[in-house]
Amino acid sequence: MKELYQMTNEELFEKLHSDGEGLSEYEAKKRIKTYGLNKLNEVKRKNVVQIFLGQFCDLLVVILLVAAGISMISGNIESTIVIVVVLILNAILGTVQYMKAEKSLKALKSLSSPKSKVLRNGCKKEIFSHDIVPGDILLLEAGDMIASDGRILKNYSLQTNESSLTGESLNVNKDESVLVGKFPLAERKNMVYAGTQVVYGRAEVLVTDTGMQTEIGKIAELMNATEEKKTPLQRSLDSFGKKLAFLIIIICILVFILQIMQKNPLIDSLMFAVALAVAAIPEALSSIVTIVQAIGTQKMANENAIMKELKAVESLGCVSVICSDKTGTLTQNKMTVTDIYTDKRCISPDELDIVNETHRYLLYNAVLNNDAHLGEESNIGDPTELALLMMAELAVEKGATLTPCYHEKLRESLKRKEELPFDSQRKCMSTKYCIDGSEIVLTKGAVDVLLDRIVSVHTSEGVRAVTKDDIVDILRQNQEYSEKGLRVLAFVYKEESEGETLTFASEKDYVFLGLVAMIDPPREETAQAVQDAKEAGIRTIMITGDHKATAVAIAQKIGIFKDGDWAVTGPELDEMSDDVLDDNLDNISVYARVSPENKIRIVEAWQRKECIVAMTGDGVNDAPALKMADVGVAMGINGTEVSKDASDMILADDNFATIMKAVVNGRNVYKNIVNAIQFLLSGNMAGILAVVYCCIFALPAPFAAVQLLFINLLTDSLPALAIGMEKGNKGLLKEKPRHAGQGILTGQFLRNLMGYGILIAIVTLIAYHIGLRESAGLAGTMAFSTLTLARLFHGFNCRSSELIFRIGLFSNKWSLCAFVLGVALLACVLFVPILQNLFMVEPLSIQLVSVVILLSVLPTAVIQSIRIFKKLNL
Predict the structure, then answer these.
(1) Which of 259, 242, 133, 140 is nearest to 191 (CA)?
(2) Using an 8 Å Cβ cutoff, are 557 and 529 in contact?
(3) Most confidently modeled of 177-181, 608-612, 761-765, 810-814?
(4) CA distances for 327 relative to 163, 378, 489, angstroms
(5) DSSP for 529-579, written as a single string
(6) Rounded to an integer, what distance in angstroms lies between the CA atom of residue 546 and that of residue 46?
(7) pTM higher than 0.85 for the full model?
(8) What is the mean pLDDT of residues 707-727?
(9) CA 284, CA 292: separation in Å to the nearest integer?
């Protein structure tokens, strides 16, 4: 069956039951019922209530709800209120974060222009874009946003910008000819697509697909089918939460049974179990993780990396593959002339000399035979023509023979008399001017088209007849430029008799001026950033809609493509099975002329190897892959709204090097989160050990539930947040990315957790027994005070695995502030009468306060001493 781009006009009219006069209003209304409105469907989303209630489905939250219920039954209303308030606040925070996500389809809808011009009943009419149906005749002109997919019937030098859909950086010249054979999306010159823009010319188009059947609609379906992936930290925390919840339930049941066996009252036994549950669960953990991620987000924003998803911050820390778009990310996103071949030699643009007649005519051609404009605020026109104007300005500036704005002054002095616009069939553009009293035709175009029309060559010695050696030299130089991935244009001219009309047939008998080669060059900092990524254990892959030769040339310059690497096109990738792709994945460094489905497949292939994948993109065609990747990175300057909404991170400067800065921040955020979790859990471990000890030896409960909540939510949260503010260093970039399956509970983490917890538990129980000499109430107050203060001191240990004096006691001012504020809060609880009653503490003498301080310092002193011995290898 023929594709739409392979059909003749007659076959298209027959297939779509239409003709060149367009549809009638009656037929259009019928087709709306058949095909639906020309808009994108949207999947059903959860409402706010569903999202809020979903926050209570976590097992640890359920345990706390049970603890709150038991506290209420026992008459301990204060503890119940505190627990419920904490859970509600956490649920609100989670709901707010969820509601900030998924906006991709709304942005896709906004791409459709509100109104479009069509032929109805043979008359031109403006209608709402959502009323367009297959079979309509769409009338396009420069500046229009194309509202549907269609086949060109009549073409008048139409150029479209399809970069958002295909990734092709250059404007596409369209024509109405029938294509023979199979062509990828980017090469279907007789088709136009919804969401792309007309930049030049006009055309009449037969609408072939609308709504979800368009190429944008297919992308929307891909996005609906793409499930959101959990980050490595989320997976680690989920696993950790389940294990912790299971352990807490088991221990609480055992403690409760032990209390009953010791013939304690049922309510007291339940409250003992509640105290243990509250001691074990780090209530502030989710909030701390969120806030630390938010702090990292703010820091990244200051370095041009705007994080849309907090959860993606730490994912950057374990990225092992970056699939990067070429245009605008690795390159400067502007065509630049790099080489010129004229008068049998290769020169750079700054070697052009306006005094040299050959060079002068070449500059005349570049400026006058050109419709672009360099403005003070923005440039207008085709990227290739803008590059030629920049070349001319640079040559004039270097030569200092004419003033700046050379192209404007030249155009003012020489008025265009005739023109033949560029079209994709002729592959050239011609204009006529009166120069030095002669009628001069200036032509630029494809080398293969103009070479056969050359009869003379302009040299420093004047104009002479072209020779076979000249042709061989021109072809050789063109081949050399092409192999480097450069785009090459030939520049020629001719004198005409006065009054002779410029026609297609007269485009011949030219004088050769030279070849101009250009490329979208790499950013200056990209090569170093790629090298930094390599040192950090991160593989960089180029994925682009551009041609293979161009992509490889850029990839070689910046260090992505090495000898022995492969470059694969989208059609070649389509021919590969998943098994073949997996076997050769490590060899492929460049993917060119790819489709949205290709990009998703590449991301999935790397994810099958258990790699954490970052994907960059700026177009509509990138959105599904951005969503599929573990970290989607969109461009802030040239990116479409669709790509920005589908991404997790936006580069405000469109610069690949910014990704590497974000990776350092991401690794630091993860390190800080792990340190904060270790701080919270080691303190909780101490509380658990103290409660279990008292249960085993039938001693009174060392803590009230409200006291443990005070520790977990206030005095523990402050140092944990301060740990999250710890600064990173460049040494993080030398580390290899952690494996996606690596959880938080590593062997070293658990050893530290147990060691720190035991040390703090020992001093807590010593304080408990000192108080127990007088009363159970004083014992609880001593245990509570010591545990709280010891955990505040312990915050300094958890800032880093290094000695506190090596990283600097004052290098993190927030850590000191957290300690001071925590001590102040503890003092208020211990010495303010109203708070003494609320938190069930008894007054302490100066001597007992001194004992608490001394015992609280001991764990930190021991931990720092052990680190000193390790450094000294003792």
Answers:
(1) 140
(2) no
(3) 761-765
(4) 9, 19, 21
(5) HHHHHHHTT-EEEEE-SS-HHHHHHHHHHHTSS-TT-EEEEHHHHHTS-HH
(6) 39
(7) no
(8) 82
(9) 12
Q: Are 665 and 321 in contact (CB under 8 A)?
A: no
Q: Which two tokens stand for residue 426?
A: 């002729």
- 509 catalytic, yes or no? no
The residues, any chain, with a CB within 8 Å of residue 564's CB and separated by 6 or more, are: 587
CB–CB of 419/431 below 8 Å?
A: yes
Taking Cα atoms as reference points, which of 557, 609, 559 lies closest to residue 581? 609
Q: Is the dihedral of CA 845, 848, 850, 856 positive or negative?
A: negative
Percent of the chain past pLDDT 70, that is, above it, reads 88
Is the model's pLDDT at 192 over the cut of 90? yes
The per-residue pLDDT for 578 is 93
- DSSP code of 180? -
Distance CA 34, CA 157 (A): 34
pLDDT at residue number 294 = 73
State mean pLDDT over 204-215. 92
Closest Cα to residue 667, out of 752, 729, 621? 729
DSSP secondary structure of 771-840: HHTT-HHHHHHHHHHHHHHHHHHHHHHTT-SS-HHHH-TTS-HHHHHHHHHHHHHHHHHHH-HHHHHHTT
Which segment, 453-462, 594-603, 644-653, 745-754, is predicted with the most confidence on average?
453-462
User: What is the C-alpha to C-alpha distance for residues 514 and 641, in angstroms, rounded to an integer?
Assistant: 41
Residue 509 to residues 358, 445, 498, Cα–Cα distance (Å): 17, 15, 16
**Average pLDDT rounded to a whole number, residues 663-688:** 87
476, pLDDT greater than 90: yes
Contact of 595 with 621, CB cutoff 8 Å: yes
DSSP-assigned letters across all residues of 335-379: -EEEEEEETTEEE-GGG--TTSHHHHHHHHHHHHS---B--SS--
User: Among 187-191, 401-405, 604-608, where is mean pLDDT lowest?
Assistant: 401-405
Range from 84-88, 221-225, 779-783, 785-789 carrying the lowest mean pLDDT: 221-225
Coil, helix or strand at residue 438: strand
In angstroms, the CA 386 to CA 373 distance is: 7
Hey, what are 584's tokens? 């050769």
How does DSSP classify residue 7?
S
Instruction: Collect all residues with Cβ–Cβ distance below 8 Å to 790 and sequence separation of at least 6.
Output: 686, 760, 763, 764, 855, 856, 857, 858, 859, 860
137-165 mean pLDDT: 86
Please pick, among 325, 343, 470, 622, the residue that the annotation labels catalytic. 325
Beta carbons within 10 angstroms of residue 293's beta carbon: 26
